[in-house]
Amino acid sequence: xxxxxxxxxxxxxxxxxxxxxxxxxxxxxxxxxxxxxxxxxxxxxxxxxxxxxxxxxxxxxxxxxxxxxxxxxxxxxxxxxxxxxxxxxxxxxxxxxxxxxxxxxxxxxxxxxxxxxxxxxxxxxxxxxxxxxxxxxxxxxxxxxxxxxxxxxxxxxxxxxxxxxxxxxxxxxxxxxxxxxxxxxxxxxxxxxxxxxxxxxxxxxxxxxxxxxxxxxxxxxxxxxxxxxxxxxxxxxxxxxxxxxxxxxxxxxxxxxxxxxxxxxxxxxxxxxxxxxxxxxxxxxxxxxxxxxxxxxxxxxxxxxxxxxxxxxxxxxxxxxxxxxxxxxxxxxxxxxxxxxxxxxxxxxxxxxxxxxxxxxxxxxxxxxxxxxxxxxxxxxxxxxxxxxxxxxxxxxxxxxxxxxxxxxxxxxxxxxxxxxxxxxxxxxx
Length: 430
Ligand SMILES: *Cc1c(COP(=O)(O)O)cnc(C)c1O
Prior knowledge:
Layout lengths: L8 H10 L4 E5 H14 L7 E5 L6 H8 L4 E4 L2 H9 L7 E4 L5 H9 L3 E4 L4 H9 L5 E5 L6 E3 L2 E4 L10 H13 L4 E5 L11 H20 L2 E6 L17 H16 L8 E4 L3 H4 L3 E12 L3 E5 L8 H5 L5 E3 L9 E6 L8 E8 L7 E4 L20 E5 L5 E5 L4 H4 L7 H13 L2
Parallel strand pairs: 1-18, 2-3, 2-11, 3-4, 4-5, 5-6, 6-9, 9-10, 10-11, 13-15
Antiparallel strand pairs: 1-12, 7-8, 12-13, 12-17, 14-17, 15-16, 18-19
The protein binds pyridoxal-5'-phosphate (PLP).
Pyridoxal-5'-phosphate binds next to helix 10.
């Protein structure tokens, strides 16, 4: 499959007139169509809810769009909870799926009435000591261990993951929580990441549904929801085939009818905590080629770096690249496409075949809508970019301004030198 940008060259040229590169651009139309398709795919389940994984794209303008399709927020930190609260996401519309959780985060989650998803059996005592009781609705994160396989393919390695409780522990946890007054239970598991197969969710559902039936039978706990969490992936590579959410929804329905309905559990709600699937394809990083370098290899230097998109440096992840206006030219040049960090892993692509790139070309890096901007950091004192929303009516709206040096120095504001730096930034930064 050819990968196309969701924005035309003409439109992008127009946006760049107002907003200098680099920036992340998001596609309202794509976000809406996908959110609607997810909602429809699970409409067979009365209690279905998607809790958008806020960490993927923590921008209130984007999350507000998802709210229109009934989505809540999946949070795992103090600031993610604050952001959700500020957007008017309240009570059980917040799922708090954290791990190694600080006490003050449990306190805030409880204050907001969020559903708390316990990562470990020892957190029962920790939570009770922190908030003074056990909430009536509570969830536990499950990790069966071993390898997660589909046919003979290893999808991921839960046995090596820090998350969740063992099978033994989750049975004991349900018992203890019930004794301490919990009335409604949930189970959660995240066993494979970025899966590009329609089989992952149905297989995960089978594992969770079977445990749920046993848990309800053996502990007498009422299971209100089963949270399939994140993990539905996107086709980063042109040769990959996108997941079909309708087939995935039907696959989960089939297992639901085979396992839960005969056990008298046809009232269980299905929850999801998708991040990548909701936003990934509907964002891109817009950059400009500012240097070319011919040494032992051919290099193109961009005005963006790993601070703006960390996945290639961190995981060696593939992100497709389009040279705007040269979509139909032959890919007969082999380049390393680099950022400016003093780190040799700051490369958006290595040995990538692309059309000949000239300085000043607009280079679009695809699929940065999730775990893109949000994973960024400030190494080398580089600043994070703006975020812009391409609206359905074709206009572009700034939804986060770019960082300035004053932002970078903000945490020195309790010292003289810091206050000087911040003042100076306001004077010299344009
Ligand atoms: C990161 C995360 C998600 C979202 O994962 P995606 O791969 O973006 O779908 C969901 N739930 C939890 C607990 C997470 O940590």
